[in-house]
Specification:
MetI-like fold; about 325 residues; mainly alpha; globular; 16 helices
Length: about 325
């Protein structure tokens, strides 16, 4: 077990390094440190001295990857990539271009994102699976056909419609929940109800169809035929055997969502005014704050890798035939 974890950590390092280098290179292809200084200073007539002082203060006065003027190992150490990006591997996020402590911002903003993403994931997973199993149980009937049509209709509507429609209906007309905002403690419940509901409904179309296809594929396998030959009812076959054997691909689909538990939803948080990591990243992109963008991209990559690792461990727990290799 320990050897497997160590190998996975070693395998992940080149991937994370590649993502880090690619993010760094793409950002500086679009914006040079001088462009970043002009935008952050926000003045019409900016002197060269002001730009130079801003770069020195923020640590952007070094070459990108290689310092020809330095000696020895400092040719690599005294570069923007080493000082700004390699420190991410020890989770030293540093400070934003506006002077804020990124690690402090992340530790504060992750909880509103988590408060929305976790119930959305759990409730959405339950609703999607229950709806898909209902369609499979009545497969070939008008109820199944109606369910598929309903899923296609939900998939055909933009998620922005659900957001704006939910804000108008439940926030403005019925006045059941606030349209936007956030508060700490139990007061946050009234602010997260609508985003969670919108997230579950908007994902029901795609999720319901995917799980239905998954369950139908399991229904044609030999173990299902054997269970039916033993006289088990269709309900018991579906809920006891099919659902259990479909858990492996279900876990694989959940992995994609794991980073959003901490990273937040970019669209939901922006429209509902949730001070989470999603809106944090959107604001950083708008302000062209490279320090925040690179930190969030790296953090998302690490969380995705952790999700894959947890999925492999879950495979062994759910299926004894799977072994660590």
């Amino acid at each position: 077990m320990m050897g497997y974890f160590l190998r996975r950590i070693v395998y992940a390092m080149p991937i994370l390094m590649g993502i880090n280098i690619l993010t760094f290179a793409l950002f500086f292809m679009v914006n040079s440190p001088d462009d970043m200084a002009r935008m952050q200073l926000g003045q019409k007539h900016i002197t060269a001295q002001a730009i130079t002082e801003w770069k020195i203060e923020r640590g952007y006065d070094y070459p990108l990857f290689y310092n020809h003027e330095a000696q020895g190992v400092n040719k690599i150490r005294n570069t923007l990539f080493f000082k700004k990006s390699l420190r991410l591997f020890v989770f030293d996020f540093g400070f934003s271009d506006a002077g804020r402590d990124i690690k402090q911002d992340v530790s504060t903003r992750m909880w509103p994102s988590f408060a929305i993403a976790l119930p959305s994931l759990v409730l959405g997973l339950f609703v999607n699976i229950a709806f898909a199993m209902l369609m499979v149980f009545f497969r070939g009937t008008y109820l199944d056909l109606s369910g598929v049509i309903f899923c296609i209709m939900l998939m055909s509507i933009s998620s922005l419609f659900y957001i704006m429609g939910g804000q108008y209906l439940f926030g403005k007309v019925l006045r059941l929940v606030p349209i936007s905002g956030y508060d700490d403690g139990f007061d946050s419940l009234k602010f997260i109800l609508l985003p969670v509901m919108v997230s579950v409904i908007s994902g029901l179309g795609g999720g319901g169809r995917w799980y239905r296809t998954l369950f139908l594929e399991e229904m044609h396998k030999d173990y299902v035929k054997t269970a039916r030959a033993k006289g088990l009812s269709e309900r018991r076959v579906l809920f006891r055997h099919v659902l259990k054997n479909a858990m492996l691909p279900i876990l694989t689909g959940v992995v994609v969502i794991i980073p959003t538990l901490f990273m937040g939803s970019l669209v939901l948080e922006s429209f509902f005014g949730i001070p989470g990591l999603g809106s944090y990243l959107i604001d950083a992109i708008y302000q062209q704050d490279f320090a925040i963008v690179r930190a969030m991209v790296f953090l998302g990559s690490v969380l995705y890798w952790v999700g894959l690792l947890l999925t492999d461990v879950s495979y062994v727990w759910l299926d004894p035939r799977v072994r660590f290799a």
